[in-house]
Amino acid sequence: MESASPSPARWFRALRRTVSDSRKSSNSSLSEEVIRKSRSAFLFGKTKTLEFRVAQLEAIFQMLVDHESQFVEALHKDLHRPRFETLLSEITTVKNEARYAINNLKKWMQPAYIEKSMTSLLDVGFVQSEPVGVVLIIGSWNFPIQQVLVPMVGAIAAGNCVILKPSEVSSSAAELLNTLLSKCLDNECYHVICGGQADLMELLENRFDHIFFTGDRSTGKMVAQAAAKHLTPVSLMLGGKNPCYVDKDCDIPLSAKKIAWARFVNAGQTSLAPEYVLCHADVEDKLVENLRLCVEEFYGKNPQESPHFGRIVSVEHYKHVTELLSCGNVAFGGQTEESDKYIAPTVLLGVQESDAVMQQDILGPVLPVLSVANLDEAIDFINKKDRPLATYVYSNSSQVVSEMMSRTSSGSFCSNDSLIQSLCISLPRGGMVNSGVGAYGGKYTFDTFSHSRSFLLRNRAIECVTYLRYPPYMDKNLNLMLWASSLLHKKDGWCQII
């Protein structure tokens, strides 16, 4: 008996599954081929010489110089980002990282010799930084160039092969990276794989030697879970509710200017920016008024018309941020336009600790301001929450700054300014617990992508002491071995056996 023909709906669903399976197979094959190619190059030792690493770092630097206008254009398409912000936060940041690594790489690659006890006095002991292998770097959409290229600089400096997965949300930047990196860097060792969330999860099914992720916590958890299947070490750069305390003893106009810049740069889509302000009740009105004046000074009476103010990256994210505007009361700002993905710089008052704007990462131009009675109340408020990516304090009192430093915990800390610590190349970047795992920036990125391999080159003459370790055991031999293997304690210029 002839079987019945499938309905049009069933046929379409079957066709869609076939196309999806075909695409999945194609993407999976591409990922596997790229990883195989990278691993082969690494095992061959191609990335290990100083000369090769420096040449690739120089190529990244030159790429940024030669194609600066293209990067500016791509980020304007993705985020309506002003050229000033792109050059400062993306291009110059990566160029400085590359130049810093080039200038210091020879020193970083040198072995570090160890202190020795009597049992190793005649030996040579040292620690050598070695590359871990093939690493995966996953970037976020809010700073799509520097959040993949800064860790890539460190991974290259450490001698690894690198696979980049830029965010598909900043599609223009991702496409540009894909085009330029394939032209500028070695095609066996460095690759870009584009795609969405499903493509990322497929990619994570493969084994890597380190995974570096920048993004939201929910995706970070999925990355960590996928990495755990292969026991792959991970670095997670996540967000956090960064507190900012404004003391009554501070320069309010100047503080407001720094806070407004940090919160509203890149249309607020900065994970390191202040997420909320805790200010002394005596200065709340003055602070809010100065924030309003700063916004007008920066962007004019209508920021939507300003060439210096960006846009939200996507309609989906726009909707998320606009929902947060219903928390508390709008002190100023609050204007929105979905077709332009525009949200005005906004300050909220009367916000409750339980409101969504105080629970979720904002990543938009919205700043809640809450009043507190004193420093102790501010510190208690901060410590009730998960540890943030950064903590900020504005005060003329060194005692207030010291109290905030010692009684809070966060990925980084900055007094009397905000966000600016990210420009200090010698300081590590990264969070702790909920705001991240690991650190990067300068030498810290090199260390993240390196294995500290220990070496002990034994001198056979030391056997005159270490022969005492062999059975049959005797108390006399034990006492001599304990003496020989104990570290020396320096006290008042004299060495004493511990």
Order of strands, main sheet, comes to 10-13-14-9-8-15-16
**Helix count, DSSP H or I runs of 4 or more residues:** 16
Query: Using DSSP, what is the number of strands?
Result: 20
Q: DSSP strand (E) fraction?
A: 15-25%
Query: Which percent range fits the helix content?
Result: 40-55%
Instruction: Assign the structural class, choosing from mainly alpha, mainly beta, alpha/beta, alpha+beta, or little secondary structure.
Output: alpha/beta
- Which CATH class of the largest domain is shown? Alpha Beta
End-to-end Cα distance: 92 Å
Instruction: Report the average pLDDT across residues.
Output: 90
The CATH topology of the largest domain is Aldehyde Dehydrogenase, Chain A, domain 1
CA-based gyration radius: 27 Å
- Under CATH, the homologous superfamily of the largest domain reads Aldehyde Dehydrogenase, Chain A, domain 1
Globally, the shape reads globular
Number of separate domains? 3
Main sheet attributes: strand count, strand direction, barrel closure: 7 strands, mixed
Assembly of the depicted chains: single chain
List low-confidence stretches. 1-25, 492-498
